[in-house]
Amino acid sequence: MEAGNLEKFFGPYLSERQWGTVREDYSHNGDCWRFFSHDKSRYTVYLHGEDGLLGWCDYKSKLCVSLALWNGKDKILKERLFGLTGLQGNHGEDVKEVYYYLDNVADHSYMRALYRYPQSAFPYKKLIRKNKERKHTDPEYELTDTGVFDHDYWDIYMEFAKEDPKTCLCRYIIHNRGKNPATLHILPQIWLRDTWSHCSCDSCHTTTKPNIKICNEKNQVRIDYSEGSFFAKFDNSPTGHLPDLIFTENEAITSADKSDEEDYKKDAFHQFVIAGETKCVNPHQNGTKCAAVYCVTVNPGSSKQIQMCLWPVKSSPKCNNFGLQFDSILKAKATQAKKTCSKLMHPSWSEEEKNVAQQAYAGLLWSKQFYCYDVQKWFKANCSIDWDSGSELSDEEADDIEEKECCGLVDPHSKESIQAESCSDENSLCKVSDGNLKQEIVDSSTSSDEHLEKSENKESGRRSSIGKQTYKIEHKRNKDWLFHLHNCDIISMPDKWEFPWYATWDLAFHMIPFSTIDPLFTKKQLLLFLSDNYLHPSGQLPAYEFDFSDTNPPVHAWACLHVYKNSKKDIHFLKKCFQRLLLNYTWWINAKKIPGPGHLYGGGFLGMDNISVYNRSHGIPPGYMLAQADGTAWMAFYSLKLFEMALELSQLDNDYLDMAERFLNYFFLIADTANSPINQAGFWDEEDKFFYDILLPYHSDEIIPLCTRSLVGLVPLFACAFITIPKSISTNPRFLSIMHKAMSKNKLSQQNTIKKVKEYTSHQKYHVMLNQEQFFVSLISKNQLQQILAWVLKESEFLSPFGIRSLSKHYENHPYPPPVETDTGHKLNSGKMECSSDEQKMHAHMGESHHDSKVERNPGEKPVLEDDDSDIESNDSRYDEMVKEVTVKYAPGESICGMFGGNSNWRGPIWLCMNYLLLESLESYYYAYGDNFQVELPTGSGKSVNLQQVVRDISERIVSIFIPDKDGKRPVHGGFRQYAEEESWRHLVLFYEFFHAETGRGCGASHQTGWTALVVEFLKKKYSQ
Fold this sequence. Notes:
The strands form ten sheets. This protein has a nine-stranded antiparallel sheet. It has 1025 residues and is of the alpha+beta class. It is globular. It contains 26 helices and 33 strands. One of its GO terms (biological process) is oligosaccharide metabolic process.
């Protein structure tokens, strides 16, 4: 570990879900959820990481610490968070637990979190059954809906502090929130990740098996592993007794019928505590997994505490005697953390706003996770699979087994258990030598698929001799990332349960609030993704582990520039970013530009899963290509960010001015194309005053617009820049020439002063010189801005009580059908239907007339299929069936369709990431146009405001999602009454993935303090002057 990072040796890096991930999936069909289920994680070793409850670990996740609980009712220990798989939830995967991140600081010297655990049996089966019965149109059935928190439950607070970088204190405070005395078994666990029996990562692999063993003091253990030697000590129980220390191995059950008593299994603690089986733990008290077993009885309304500490063998800490010194260290670190956090708060913020900001920052820091994925080794593993059923089961059979497993009705040690084991000793990952890997599979004349088949065939004889049925990885996920992608780092995750894998465009948004609390980590994260271990040789940034080759919006340059401006303008950081971003920019041009003379771009879903009438990644009608208004605008946005970077870097070297010229020129080329009318293969609809995607047939000149008002049409607003010209270049003749040529689009005589450039170019469409030092450029004109904002600020369109909707509310009563049939490419309509009365008023408000010649938009009319000889009844039937599947209908909360698994929804809800980019852009327009540029807020109200007031108003709406209303209810928590009525719930806040546009209720992932931590940035904007 780098010396400068020693203070972060330990942190909250333990994942909350390693099961069900691509990294642990060695199935033949890519079914990661079923291959490695929640129940299998009890007894099957992980190959690429670990997970736990209220956990922490070292920077390689080799030494892990977390909690296991038992309420005396469940059939299994609660040692990791439970949730529904992508197949079980009516809106995809979803954690079914209640927990909160309360405190954290940049060096993790103090952390605090809360987990709520029912005193009654955890309703695993009920959660699976109830959600299985529900459709996409139904709300999700949550743990809070089961009633387990109406009366008797436990609050378990985890409090963590560091005496020094490698000396850790941990206290668990157990509150009885019931009406009667209750007993809880609590097991602080220490274990070592299995890095010795296989080699899934060269950086992590160890040849010597580590060990945890008991010391002379019966409540102390010694840990010897590759990162050092440590002692861990467990305090006496609240009754004064020493806890029982139990040991086993962190290794998988290697055979369903193996019953050797000396084979101590990963799931031994479940058997020891719940079944009372003492032979399942090692009587010699050593192994690679250890737990201290406490049993506490707590009176109603009271609490008790369990304590432990860990320190290097060669140090002499103060905390290991517990008592007053232990208390004083925890209190001092808590006080210091509070002071650190308070410095981040604005004095004008209310106490409730400060509470929200504190938990947002805490969640952001808690979401750091160790992530290990070497694609080459993952492919090379060739694991042997004991596949009695697995993904051959029907959904109903799989759900039934999952219910039984969760309820402890399936014995993993029995022959009848369903297993997708990791690797046997004879055929484990560690036995696959990579020494001759390149010679074996690197052959320029052979495809990746052929390489893999050769490698697999080579192993087939050895595998068959083991007597197990094996499958090759037919889906070959991420095969194009085989030879370079080696991730083994601490990464900011979107949500450590629902998204325990990085998403590159999410991470760019994480870095905005992160730059306030830890600028150094922020810069390292952004550079990490531009390094050779991440960035593809072609220049593509990896998207996420399910498909690294997918395309996300190019926001990485924007984040780099933002962090540069927000962290003392580290010019060397900016230079490193710029040089690597050039590769990514070139990839975009080569891979996503649509062939032809213009500058149109595609890109696929571009982060907004179901926003279009078509699946933009894989569902374009045959015979057509999709030109995307957002994809093209994102490239204009990207060009401007690199232009800004090049100007900054020209202070180091004037040669960067050549790059500045290139990107400014490219921006103008894209702007010209994007602003062309739709009938000229642009995106601007002169009648609607909005930007739309267009379908372009391969074999005709026809252009079909996809006329839905959504965030797709707002992305062009983001392509703007308010630039302060560095003094060192403001009089540079080369710079003045570049400005003149780019803006005038000719090569006439050079202007030699900013004043002359300003005079010459004042009539241009996309830019304005403000003064000697400031320059503004944007993709859209001032008139277009006015026209688009008339839609954005209209309450029946985009403006909701809680921010800007992702899709216009107009489509609630006027669903938009596809203009071309998805499967056949048959044309259904022109893409336009008759304007509603609201739309006609909008055109009148904009000073535009509604043309009679325009194709009628009648939502109820069923157009006859062109080029189809079938009768009208057949057309109607096929149209109705198709429309039901793909029609765009406003859905303010969770998705009501199954596109992209129904896990997220971009057809109405509030997304903080896109709201943030919109408001940041409006601030730039305000700096350029000033107070004289006025818009109505809301549209039609007669109340005119400037753009800074618009920013403050929308920011206040977004912040209100998290703040209690006059009745004490936070909109984010929906109708769950405890948050408003019970003292122990009132201060707690969840940070969801997106938000119901009409109520503010949180939807999707519940701990997405990745980009939802942006609420802190909206707080700043709410109070901006």
